[in-house]
Amino acid sequence: MRYFEKMKGHTQSPPRVNKVEIFWSWLGSFLGITVVGLMHFNLLDRSAMIMIIGSFGASAVLVYGAIRSPLAQPRNLIGGHMLSAVIGVAAFQFLGHIPWLAAALAVSIAIAVMHLTKTLHPPGGATALIAVIGGDTVHSLGYLYALIPVGLGAVVMLIIALLVNNLAPNRRYPEFWI
Amino acid sequence: MANHIPGNLLTTDMKTTDNPKQNGVCAMNSTHLPRCSPVDISNDDIMEAMKSMQGYIDITPADFKEIYRITYALSRDRLMNALKAADIMTTPAHGIDIDADLITTATLLAEKGISGAPVTDRKNGVVGVISEKDFLRRMGADQRGSFMQVIAHCLKNKGCVAAPMINRAVRDIMTAPAITATPDIPVGQISALMTEKNINRLPIVDAAGQPVGIVTRSDLVNSYCMLG
Hints:
The complex is a heterodimer of chains A (178) and B (228). Chain A is mainly α. Chain A has 8 helices and no strands. In chain A, helix 5 (99-116) runs antiparallel to helix 6 (123-133). The longest helix of chain A is centred in the N-terminal third of the chain and has 26 residues, at 19-44. Chain B has 228 residues and is an alpha/beta fold. Chain B is 40% helix and 16% strand. Chain B is built from 9 helices and 9 strands. In chain B, a hairpin with a 5-residue loop joins strand 2 and strand 3. Chain B is elongated and about 75 Å long. The A-B interface holds A 10-15, 17-18, 20-21, 65-72, 170-171 and B 43, 47, 50-51, 54-63.
């Protein structure tokens, strides 16, 4: 009975943030994705390189929208993405012929490694998955994927987070670096 | 032989409780002893605090409460163990000889401005405690020893109720065996012990059972300043 009892939940949702906070979350994420997007579409597109991947949208939620969260700190943003990228590429290269297994192992090992290294960053799971299911453009990058787009994109988003989040009088970022 | 409590053996029963009726007050438990419980924080308090902080707090109220409970218990243990009897006791303890007569004893206590003292035997071992309560009990008060009971007794009997104590010695009225402790007993255990045994002073003895100091309720109150 306790097993099913636990499924009912036991507490409430945290309060809604105020409008000022929503504005800064919007501004930060708009600028962060703008810069990464400009680099992708204007600079790298011609060289078959990519700069933007889906998991950056998830990172934007954290580093601009939940900036106090341990999950949103620089260690997690950079470490989580880059470790997961390496794991994702390795999963594809060793098990790419069994896509479902490569995908499952990429994500699950990425989560375990992020836990172990105290770099848990939820978008890292997406980064690992994209390395497997991202198609030829991603696959052709090999381990470079971990540096560009993943590492570089994360660093760009971090720089924007530092610049924008600290403009707000009542915000500060980061909570810690490493 | 003294009823000796080593500083590291006594356990206290002062766990946090979920009972909302005991919020931050000393409630009476089943044994009619006051028991202190920490202020319980409500979900509303937590939600209010989270609202007052800028930004999205990535934690549920229940998680915060759990962290609070555990942290509170750890802090409490640290504070309760931070000070030992040796840090807060009054020294030296004025030991009173077991065969001293009560007139001398009462005069001495009055001169020193203290309400009680450990009683020692010929080998200077603590064998009991004598305090106002012991005198009051002989003057018509019951076990709890209140001065008001003595007043009431006096008024009813129209006379001095201290007279029966002339020619009596300390050994006749003292509380024995003495409850004592070693200098390493933490203040938290002293509070629990005083509450449990309903005593106001705890003689502190060395390994040989000889008095080295005394912790009174006032010393305990003063110790809270040292923690702050």
